[in-house]
């Protein structure tokens, strides 16, 4: 299993899946050469959050980097979504040349909202988050049971999903380009450098006593949720009032 996770939702699903299936689990942020591992496996699982019915750029770049080791592999694709993904799982196949890989299972898993500075999509209460995570866990168990029994599923591959995904995804390239340099750090910043250490793109750097951005944001929402001063805004220049604390925050007492 290879995963990318901005704020922990996809990581939780990837690790749960890997635990049940008794397979290795790796973040694509690990600094190592995965080619030998990919070449040695017949079936590879991927997990990532859906962005506008599309695959995050950091995950696309990973797949392109390992295009040759992935040639001829069977893929299991798991996507985490907020409400609706369209063809978010199928979209991963667009990264590869025709016939390069074979998808044997694809599914979407609904997880809690982690976008903390979008007024019309407020963060959910802890009890709601807990219920959503429990439902997601049940779904992962069903997915694993399906795979163990040789059942196949291709969520997002039917014509309706593809049409809806096309509508949603049509806006994503522009959205993604616009988001590259839409990171703001306000005067509440105490230069603790948390954002520097957690950014998966190394987009935030500390130079000459100041925090600067390199116009390479992948809009994962990690920095705005982990900043102890709520001093960062991403994409929307809206002050953060409440942060998403992640899956573990609602499960520690269960």
Please explain how this structure is put together.
The chain is 33% helix and 17% strand. By secondary structure, it is an alpha/beta fold. The two termini are 26 Å apart. It folds into two domains: 2-173, 3-Layer(aba) Sandwich (Rossmann fold); 180-234, Alpha-Beta Plaits. It has nine helices and ten strands. Helix 1 runs parallel beside helix 4. The chain has a six-stranded parallel β-sheet with strand order 2-1-3-4-5-6, with helices on one face. A two-stranded antiparallel sheet has the order 7-10. It has a two-stranded antiparallel ribbon with strand order 8-9.
What is the count of helical runs? 9
CATH homology-level superfamily of the largest domain: Flavodoxin domain
Span from first to last CA? 26 Å
Give a count of the beta strands, DSSP E runs of length 2 or more: 10
User: Helicity level, as a percent range?
Assistant: 25-40%
Which stretches of 5+ consecutive residues score pLDDT under 50? none
Tell me about the biggest sheet? 6 strands, parallel
String of helices and strands:
EHEHEHEEHEHHEHEEHEH
Q: How many individual domains?
A: 2
Question: Approximately how much beta-strand content do the residues carry?
Answer: 15-25%
CATH architecture of the largest domain: 3-Layer(aba) Sandwich
Strand order of the largest sheet: 2-1-3-4-5-6
Any idea what the radius of gyration is? 18 Å
| The first-level CATH class name of the largest domain | Alpha Beta
CATH topology of the largest domain: Rossmann fold
Instruction: Determine the mean pLDDT.
Output: 92
What gross morphology would you assign?
Answer: globular
Structural classification: alpha/beta
